[in-house]
Amino acid sequence: MRRSDIAHIHPLGFTRRELLQVGYSGLLGIGLPSLFAQRAMAKPSNLIGRGANRDGKSVLFIFLTGAPSQLDTFDMKPEAPAEVRGTFQPISTPVPGIKICEHLPLLAARADKYAIVRSLQGFSAEHEHGTHMLLTGHDRIPPGAGKHASGRDWPCYVSGLDYMRGHQTGLPTGVLLPTHISSGGAPFCGQTGGMMGARYDPLHIRHDPNDSKFHVQMDERPIGLTAERLNQRQTMLDEISRQRAGLIHSAEAQQFSSYQHDAFSILTSGRMSDAFAIEREPERIRDRYGRHMFGQSLLLARRLIEAGVSIVQANMGYMNNWDTHEANERDLQDRLLPPLDQAVSALLDDLHSTGLIDDTLIAMFGEFGRTPKIGGEKRGDIFLTDGRAHWAGAFFAVFAGGGVQGGQVIGKTDRIAAYPAGKAYYPSDLGATIYSALGVEPGSLFHDTEGRPVKLNEGQVISELYG
Questions:
Q1: Tens digits of per-residue pLDDT, 281-293?
Q2: Is residue 369 within 8 Å of residue 395, measured between CB atoms?
Q3: Topology of domain 3-466, per CATH?
Q4: Which residue in 128, 340, 419, 441 is a FRET match for 208, CA 20 to 30 A apart?
Q5: What is the pLDDT of residues 409-425, one digit of tens each?
Q6: What is the CA radius of gyration of the chain?
């Protein structure tokens, strides 16, 4: 302990430095009802179906929020008309027959390390609904769900695993970073426990790891607390008293001390504090991933996987970051593809060098694809000429690790990448693949907050990934 910390030991046993490192709000525990509140309800007796296999792998999924163009990345159509193919050129890879975009040269060089699924098909071309389906593994929106997070939504993957497996002391089941996907401050569906209840909400980091002042900041608002009340936070002890009084009639309050203790335990555990200390990475490693949100988010994700976190979701940018209605090629070439190429390539190299690739499934996808034809979308009285609009007819996902056979393309699309030409795969199939990798039977049932049995997933594992 540093000398300067000795005089700043909090009455609860934390040094000032420790509190500043992880953030007061994250340490409170009251902001983590998703991890601890009424955890006793998540006992194995609640499981209906085969439930979870504790020997499952870890999953790191890279979410391209806003949905990138399949035609300008991993499913290029150089023989298509100019208004479809655009100006980007495909480049060769070490795998005969596989070509991807020229602006992904590092990933092209590593094509033997991943598999491309080109024939994903969605059921909504709206960001909110597409995100809901892809981040939960379902092909339809449940009754009563809207465009923003509520208790009627499907649970996200972290929540599903947390329910099926139960909380593992000392580590969160999963972490989402580095930002909420939201509009107007309201999170999109698919990022919470949904119909499982807020106690299964995932741990959510809301701070860019590339920021020199990066610290752990949790998604801290329990259901029923307003932004105004959260902004009134002054000190740790004041907040504990205020929140406890506000929840005095709830089940959470009755077991407050127990859950708060668990929150402290997780956030101050050696493994977690070390994992979040991204500044300890050698400068050359941080540079290799890239000094940008994409790179440092994937570096932090790797550190969390190494620490033993089962699921990490790394959002590649803020809400609709890949939504290229205008200047599609310019944004892809200058702003989006180069940092993604650098960061994902570094991640693959690191996981291979450490052997973690065998036990970690990587999945990269967006919520849908983009229109085959460039331009023509009307916005008010103006026709956009250089962008691609939303398109759920066909899009891609990239998988690596966790037993996936690299160097292959699964599925194909028609001549303009508009629809699958042959077998299609759906959000539910992607979900089944993720749950299966985690050691969870996709068809398992859970009880929602009303006590009704609900199927976790109804898809089929994309078995072709495994050869």
A1: 999 999 999 999 9
A2: yes
A3: Alkaline Phosphatase, subunit A (3.40.720)
A4: 128
A5: 999 999 999 999 999 99
A6: 22
